[in-house]
Structures are given as C-alpha cells and as structure tokens.
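Before surveying the methods themselves, let us examine one representative protein, written as a sequence plus integers encoding its fold.
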Amino acid sequence: MLAKKAKMALINYVTEIRFGAGSLRELKEVCGNLGITKPLIVTDKGVRAVGIIDQVVTALERPGLDVFDGTPPNPSESAVRAGVQTLQAAGCDGIVAVGGGSSLDLAKAVAVAARHEGPLRQFALIEGGALKITAATLPIIAVPTTAGTGSEVGRGAIIILDDGRKVGIISPHVIPKVAICDPELTLGLPAGLTAATGMDAVAHCIETFLAPAFNPPADGIALDGLWRAWRHIEVAVAHPSDMEARLNMMSASLQGALAFQKGLGCVHSLSHSLGGINPRLHHGTLNAILLPAVIRFNRGAASVAGENKIARLSQAMGLAEDVSLEEALVAKSRALNLPTGLRELGVSEDMSERVVQGALADHSHRTNPREASAADYMEMLRQSM
C-alpha cells in the first residue's frame, strides 16, 4: 500500500521572547526598539486592581499613560470597538497588552480593527479573513499575568462576535512583536485561576501534539511543555510563591502556544462553542473537562495510534503503565479542585445541539487527528457531562 502523501509543513518561530523574573523592567527598552512612542495599555479591571498596571507604568517611566481596562472574561466585538475608540482618541501608536489570554486576545483584535476598515467578522479565519489582515496592524507587546493561554506568542485572537459566534482572528500579523514573560507577575494569581489556566496549558500541549500536521519541532516543544506543566501545576496551586513552579508553568504556557501552528482539535472546537453560548464559562476549565472524552475518541485515529502518540504523552507525564491518560487527567483536575463535569458549570443537555453546530463550524475542528461528526460530538459532550 502506498503511503499517504504528507502535506507541506509550515514551521515558523519568529516571536521575540524576553523570559525570566524581573524581565518587565525591559519594557521601556522594548517600546523604544519598536518605535512605540505612545502605547495604549490594554488590560482588565482585575489586573489593574491588584497593582500590576502600576508596575507597568513604572517600567515604562511614563506616568499618565492611557489605559483601556474594559476587557471582559471572554473578549467580545463590542469590547474591541470600545478599545479602538480609546486608542484612536488618545492617538496611540502601539499596544502593551497586560493580563491573561482575554486581554491579550482583545489587544490583538484592537490592533487589527484600528488599522483595517470593515466589521470584525470579515477577519475571522472561518470567513477567509486571514488574507485581509495586513502589516498595517498595530505593533503589540504582550505581558502575560497568567500561565495558560500562551496568547503572548500566538498568531490568533479568539473573539465573540456580535452574532454570538466565537471565532479565531488568525494571522502572522497579530503575533505580538515581543512577549515579556515575567513569572513574578503570576505570584498573586489565586489558586483557582492558577489551576484553571494551568490545565489550559496542559490541554494546549496535548491537543497540538496530537494534531496530524508534520512538525517535529512543534511536537518536541509541546511534549516538553507538558512535562513542565504536569510536574509543577500542583505546586504552583498549593504554594503560589514558589518561583520555580511559576517559571515552569509560564514556560509550559508559551510552549503550548508556540506549537499552535500545528492546529488544535475537538477540545477547542467544543470549548469555543460553549464559550460563545455562555461567555462566563472559563476556557481552561472547559478544556480540562473535555480532554478525557476527546482523547478517548482520538484513540481510534490511525495518525495517533500509528505514531504511538498517546504513549508518548503518557511517557512525558510519567504515568504508570496501568493508568490511562484519560484517568490521569480526571485525577489531576480533582487534585486541583477543578470541576470534572460540564453540569457543575451549569451546562445542560438541552444546549448540546447548539454546541455541536458551533463545534462543527470552528476552525479547530479541521485539525483534529480524527474527523468528528455531529454524532461524535454529541457523544463527547455526553461523556463530559
């Protein structure tokens, strides 16, 4: 039998990353290097309330900077419009995005919308929008304050449109020009958020590793990120001031996102759809709940079993031979006091049809290692309830 011809691989690592405790102090230099003379700080009210924005202003040595703190838990098109209005009124020429994935994603969408005409939906990947995003996009410096999404090195932003769809705005032009990853900024993160964002990083490393595209560098990065997250997440939750744990979790987060170029899969198809229906649902928590059922489904994919990828994941996590990957993930969520079923989040069976419709239309659906039908998604949801 002839081997199936592989698709051409795209392997591209170009983001500048300044990583380490105290790296926030390099922010002024980075702005200067990029020619940003009047940045808009994009964040949320929670990050601002704990004093992190004060640290950013101090690092920039620019008191009186313009700040947009209207980022919602799941960034929306209306928040993008508000951010663009603030940016244009202040005459800003770049963005410093500070916060978790929501603030970073919102900043990316603002950077696109501020320099391109037309409604935001036209830039969605599923609408063929990638080619409409140009180098006119404003430069972004990303300063993450959580260790989960990896948006600081990602080429996409997930936004809820006015019509309720949760879509990806994806282009090389939205990748932050520089990511400043300072684990000191995560020391005050509450235990629950540390756990949920940490499992988000775990989900990213697992799902992008399972994606079928040929990209050995991305596979290696994802496996190492999973190794770090699996060993350090419980320490980071139980001992929030442990700098080694915080550093490794921040590394795992950005590593998962560096491997995103392979694509994700059904976990994200479902979590994006659920998040569009109920924006209050936390993305990382959803991913942690959905992972076991999706992995069970993907065990039937030749591209997974043939390359023994499940075994490689188990090896990276240090699992005993008699412990399945699915069992280990559920046990980890329980150890972190995270929900293990969608019902605990208020998701009901009568939402399933809408969730499945959204999942089938999501861009991550196309890069799952095994094609999922509507019936397959329904079963994954049933198992995750």
